[in-house]
Amino acid sequence: MATIREEDLVVSIADALQFISYYHPEDYVRNLTQAWRREESPAARDAMAQILVNSRMAAFGRRPICQDTGTAQVFVRIGLGARIASARSLQEIVDEGVRQAWRTERNPLRASVVRDPLFARRNTGDNTPAMLHVEMVAGDALEVHVAAKGGGSENKARFAVLNPSDSVADWVVRTVEGLGAGWCPPGLVGLGVGGSPDKAMTLAKLSLLDPIDLPEIRARGPASPEEELRLALCDRINALGIGAQGLGGLTTVLDVKLRTFPTHAASLPVALIPQCAADRHVHFVLDGSGPAAFAPPPLDLWPAAISAAGPAGRPVDLDRLTRQEVATWRAGETLLLSGRLLTGRDAAHLRLTRMLEAGEPLPVDLRDRAIYYVGPVDAVGDEAVGPAGPTTSTRMDTFLEPLLPRTGLLVMVGKAERGPAAVETIARNGCAYLIAVGGAAYLVSKAVRSARVLAFPDLGMEAIHEFVVADMPVTVAVDAAGTSIHRDGPARWRRPAREAAPA
């Protein structure tokens, strides 16, 4: 019987979570590089370039790929002949590993987990507890797969119980088309089909841990109906034209994963979970001989000639914004922001709205200002701020109507599309919505020269900060006339599915 020491499991989980915070899996980088080389849409190609440059910077700097360092997802397969030498529960052991990972001094990760999901929603401060899945299997070793899943992609998880005669493929394509870009494509789609509702969701999550192998399947030809379905789904999804960051382009998904399980004759449960551009997971096995070791990817993994410079952008002085200037911006245009930039997310927006309703003065003046939807990672060393990529903007849609006309807020910066009502509100108030690239958080943070908290410090990463930025690259997603690049871009690149497969 193999005996696994508690401390070996704790340190292995902590090291694994640190490792995946700054290293992409090699298969993701290679396949994204191929997609970047094939891409014909200039906007999508530049977004992919920023993701790849960010990936290389994070790897060399050992800082998080994304500011949303995710919830810890830990899948443990315990051999029946293995024994964990501990008086604590497996959940407690795993949580200790998470706690140590998130509090690592040289690379602190962003605590995003709230203890009470219904009422106070107070942050646990160390990202515990982990989402733990356990399976007892044959053998005498401990097999562990560790992942970190960001909220943007988790929020786009979908589930349905179809009739046995329904088309799973049609449901998947309709569902992905309705997800928008908040899950930060290009990424992966994980599918779980069969079992019960809870089993199907677990299958979908597990499928995302499988290697990217669709290019190899395409090259040799599918060997099973499941592989045929995956290829067809990948082609049909890419034919939607959603593209990187929803800007319109050839590649929305790099692979479609699938796991199945026997199910009731009257049921066809189907779960869909997308994986964003921050594809983070690693596998290790403990056999009692000590903690796991993780090998960094080769230094030549990233394309040497890649650049995220993109097209020349129009300089914008945030300290002298006017409605007249904003009215000249056009959807799809690249801007370079410099000056003072406010930050604020869900919790801050909710407080601001409630203060307005109560007739209380706001702690910050929003008139003619720009606000960035971001929850940054804590800075280390001489950093002004840690990785600081955008969060999904649709969560702030409900706050636009009470805030824009009453505060004079002029510009919002985030990621992904805005809903139809939000677009109408933006246009009616003569405002604009800009996007930064989701999945390029470390790269974006290099444009931040200084940062300080202005209001709501108790909200932690959701406090209102003031950044001073220099040449921060953004794209006009909704202009003051109500033109949306997330509507027009995918429409321009949509094509028949038979044209979707790469050459």
Automatic annotation (TrEMBL):
Q: Which reaction does it catalyse?
A: (S)-malate = fumarate + H2O
Q: Matching Gene3D superfamilies, A to Z?
A: Fe-S hydro-lyase, tartrate dehydratase beta-type, catalytic domain
Pfam families, per the entry: Fumerase, Fumerase_C
Cite the EC number.
4.2.1.2
Keywords, comma-separated and alphabetical = 4Fe-4S, Iron, Iron-sulfur, Lyase, Metal-binding
Name all Fe-S hydro-lyase tartrate dehydratase alpha-type catalytic domain ranges: 12-284
Q: What class of enzyme is it?
A: lyase
Q: List residues traversing the bilayer.
A: none
Residue stretches making up the Fe-S hydro-lyase tartrate dehydratase beta-type catalytic domain: 288-488
- Highest taxon in the source lineage: Bacteria
Which SUPFAM superfamilies does UniProt cross-reference here? FumA C-terminal domain-like (SSF117457)
Classification via InterPro entries: Fe-S_hydro-lyase_TtdA-typ_cat (IPR004646), Fe-S_hydro-lyase_TtdB-typ_cat (IPR004647), Fe-S_hydroAse_TtdB_cat_sf (IPR036660), Fe_dep_fumarate_hydratase (IPR011167)
Instruction: Tell me the cofactors it needs.
Output: [4Fe-4S] cluster
The family annotation for this protein states: Belongs to the class-I fumarase family.
Q: How does it assemble?
A: Homodimer.
User: Tell me, what does this protein do in biology?
Assistant: Catalyzes the reversible hydration of fumarate to (S)-malate.
Q: What is this protein called?
A: Fumarate hydratase class I
Q: Please name the gene that encodes this protein.
A: fumB
